[in-house]
Specification:
The protein has eight helices and seven strands. The longest helix is centred in the middle third of the chain and has 29 residues. The chain starts with 10 loop residues before the first strand and ends in a 7-residue tail after the last strand.
Amino acid sequence: MENRWGLEGRSGILTGAASGIGRAAALLLGENGARLALVDLNEEGLRETEKSIRRRGGAEVRIFVGDAADEEMVQRVVSETVSSFGGVDFLVNAAGILRRTPFLELDPEEWDQVLRVNLRGPFLFCREVVPLMVRQGKGAIVNVSSLAGKTVSLMGGAHYTTSKHGLVGLSRHLAQELVSYGIRVNAFCPGATLTPLLENAASREEMEELASRIPRGRLATPEEQAEVIAFLVSDASANIIGAAIDSNGGSLMV
């Protein structure tokens, strides 16, 4: 097992691990020796991720099936992760949902649902993990936003765009507050990526059109995006703090 990112012996929590970028990141981090607590509502997908990590010779894995935006669930995940692994060296908030409802048709319930998953969940996990990292004197947090967190989403609605902008803002603010404690916080802003999230939201024709607007000429793969996450939780990015890192194939919108 190759350990390019120096993560052997480190422990982390990763949400949204059942599919897409979250799953690819879990596989890569596990292959690189990290002990992982994986969170997702999709039990079947989560167990498949766990099995894949074990088949590849990854380190210890714990899975938590539940809502990453539920306060009691978040507290249980962090508490049991500390009991199992002794601490939390990194946190990756990759859970997210995409809705395309036009603003004129958008109701408050759907608005709240998207912001709950995409923004409240990362806030809750940060709130639980940060005190641990302060006591440790170190830690890395990666909040998976989107290119839409810097511009406007062509594929998602106003609530999706707003939640992703909020996640960038949260990351930048926490970075300033926490850097003196040895904690690095960054946002990751992937462009259009071939994930179930996108496939479920767009038709084949829309995805082809989206790919045609990317200078590189194609959608990114989850595995390519996972490499950026591994970089951001590793010591290789020690001087990157409060950034919103793009991985977009040259595209300026998503």
